[in-house]
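Lab manual, section 2.4: Encoding a predicted structure.

Procedure: take the sequence of the chain (304 residues), apply the prediction step described in section 2.3, and record the output as structure tokens. A sample record is shown.
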Amino acid sequence: MGIDPRSRRLAAAWALAALAGVACSSRDVITTPHSVHRDLAYAEASDRNVLDVYVPKARASAVPLVLWIHGGAFRVGDKSRPEGLDAFLADGFAVAAMNYRLTDEAKWPAQLDDVTAAVAFLKSKGPDFGVDADRIALFGASAGGFLAATAGIAFAGRPELEVDAVVDWCGPVDFTTMDADMEASGVPRLWTRNDAPDSAESALVGLTVAEHPEAARAVSPLAYLPRVPPGAKVPPFLIVHGDRDPVVAKAQSERLRDALAASPATSRVELVILENTDHGDGAFDEPGTIQRVIAFLRETLRAG
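Recorded output:
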């Protein structure tokens, strides 16, 4: 008996939720001595406006911070298991992990508003936890990668919000081109069409992508790039994508790389394609992938 379309969508949603740390036991083990501050309210719009802050105990001064933004198709997921937590702590980074409003509660731009509020909170309150508020990176996977990329660009030229680096793992970029990119990739699609009325992308926009392409394009991080003020700089970007991704085609990350590379506001952009890897699995789970992120952040945040 075949799997009905609704079950496929739910299965895919939960597969994406694994990117939020729901299913990977390697993220459960934290061996580095640290302190943790849980469920800090960074805004008041929703019960989901909370974050956790993990800080390594072995530190001589304020440490740089990585803000983890979970995935889950904008529909599921939470802050409970940040990607690479122990590795970051062991290397001297603090980690914050945030919840944000999901699409059953609020449509765009509520999610960007939540990231904005979380960064403002961390810049203001971070020093209270031993965090250097002048050294903050955004890191997200899938839906979280989309939010990290969009926020990193949108905050450029705003000193009260500017971040110092962005790491985007397999995030979508342009909802209006996702279907064409998937078809061109030759990878069998896992989920429903991205421009369909019941897609995660239509749910985020609050309109069917196929019927309202201009509204969908306005949500894209690419739409924020031309708005960067003259003289302002977009933070360095590290983009990582699997070559066999059945949810978000790797061409989406290539589009982001190309747009950033063509912008005079961009200081640095790197795209890493992981071979024989799908949406968040395979080489994403290898320790070397997180170590590559750490090496990038050491350089961009001048940490160590």
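Check your result against the sample. The first strand starts at residue 34 and ends at 41.
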